[in-house]
Amino acid sequence: MDEVRGQYEALPYPARDPADERKRLVRTWLDDLPMINHYGFAGRQTFRDGFRVLVAGGGTGDATIFLAEQLRETNARIVHLDLSEASLSIAKKRAEARQLGNVEFIRDSLLNLPRLDLGTFDYVNCVGVLHHLEEPDTGLRALLSALAPEGVMGLMVYARFGRTGVYQMQSLMRLVNEDSTDRNARIANARQVLGALPKTSWFKRGEDLYNDHRQGDAGLYDLLLHSQDRAYTIGEIYEWLVDGHGLNLELTDVNGGRSAYLPTMLMGPRPPPVLESIRRMPARRQHEIAELFSGRIQTHSFFATRKPRCAPYGDASYVPFFFHEPVTGPQIAAIFERAGGKPFVLDHSHTGLSLVLDPGRYSPLILRHIDGARTFRQIFDRVRDDRHLGETELTDAMLFDDFRATYEAFNALDRILLKS
After folding, report:
1. Handedness of CA 94, 218, 133, 4 (dihedral sign)
2. Can you tell me the distance from the alpha carbon of 67 to that of 12, in angstroms, rounded to the nearest whole number?
3. 3-state secondary structure string across 249-265
4. CA distance 143 to 126
5. Residue ranges in the chain whose pLDDT is less than 70
6. Strands (E), 262-325
7. What is the pLDDT of residue 1?
8. What domains can you pick out in the chain, each with its CATH number?
9. What pLDDT is recorded for position 213?
10. What is the per-residue pLDDT for 392?
11. Do 375 and 43 contact (CB within 8 A), yes or no?
12. pLDDT of residue 385
């Protein structure tokens, strides 16, 4: 850990300039409050009743600043914990630039949480940290000791298969730098090797997946020269957190949501016949198949709770709303209407996914009334009031069933979420 601490003192990561806070707000995927609410609090959290947040291993402050900005007008408090004074200083200056007064900064290791006497937290963020610990499970146990009984953890650890080329490069650079103790010399050597890589190198073949080495010395060092770095398959994540600790997981790949782990959404509009047998397999095995099938998952991001806490589909008192993309219900409904009620290929440009979607009979009408304020019951009442339907008895259950395929597709992309 001394070497890891030394790395982040010399090269705070990710590299951030506090002056940039005047220009933009960095968003972090797991820390959008509507996401936390949907997956961790059954859509019922207001974030206004003394909500407490811990950002464990907060680095230069991306998650901390994003959460603090969203919670600015509440009585919530955020604790930013990190072992690097240099990283902590940058995070403090970013908070000062935004005049955020709801953050407490503590220099320490998350491994010391059980004796820091900080109380418990409703939301614990720990992104990109556990995989740098000598004993990641010790770190997880420390986080659990600080998690409120009904709390939520937002976690990210490296994925093995999507980082295949990274680990080959790390092995290569350990050999190249075996006799070098100077950090700057290691960086210079890495840049020379990167510049000379042949197209046959696994790192070169997968370079479109990696970006940190293009983000200055801190990013290059964190990606290719880190002294302590391990990765997991999704099967190992389940063994560790579900089998080992009894936690419930809600997977959400950055920008793609749960879809990255669903073979039914990855195999395209003309999937092979074997998909029929795959879709009957347990969800856990399907997630393992999807990771191996796509090969592109570089990190596993997910919410972890002690019990299932996801907002339920099928409750008419819940409000559906679009998220992550600037679209409206009428815009999506127009796409559905062009299909004339028949199954059609939905191309999602942000993720590159194409899938066949059966819109059902009423999805276009339901979509037209989704505005982020109406409940399903209010939406269904409007659908029932449509004089063109000619239905005498159209129950909530019937409409939920008709809309299910549409909801599941958009929810798997994290583009439709629910709130109470």
Report:
1. negative
2. 20
3. EEECECCCEHHHHCHHH
4. 8
5. 387-392
6. 299-305, 319-322
7. 77
8. 2-160+231-305 (3.40.50.150), 161-224 (no CATH), 319-419 (no CATH)
9. 95
10. 62
11. no
12. 87
pLDDT of res. 389: 59
Identify which of 62, 60, 44, 225 has the alpha carbon closest to the alpha carbon of residue 122.
44
What does each C-alpha distance from 131 to 29, 111, 240, 300 come to in angstroms? 19, 13, 13, 11
Residues 348-407: tens digit of each pLDDT:
988 999 999 998 899 999 999 999 999 999 999 999 987 565 556 889 999 999 999 999
Q: How far is CA 91 from CA 27, 75, 95, in A?
A: 15, 21, 6
pLDDT at 399: 96
Q: What whole-number distance in Å separates Cα of residue 82 and Cα of residue 71?
A: 21
- Contact between 311 and 418 under an 8 Å Cβ cutoff? The reply is yes
**Residue 151: DSSP 8-state:** E
Task: Give residue 386's pLDDT.
Answer: 79
Token readout for 122 is: 């409703």
Q: Write b or e for each residue in 153-172: b if 16 or more Cβ atoms lie within 10 A of its Cβ, otherwise e.
A: bbbbbbbbbbbbbbbebbeb
Packed helices 183-196 and 164-176: angle between N→C axes, nearest 10 degrees: 120
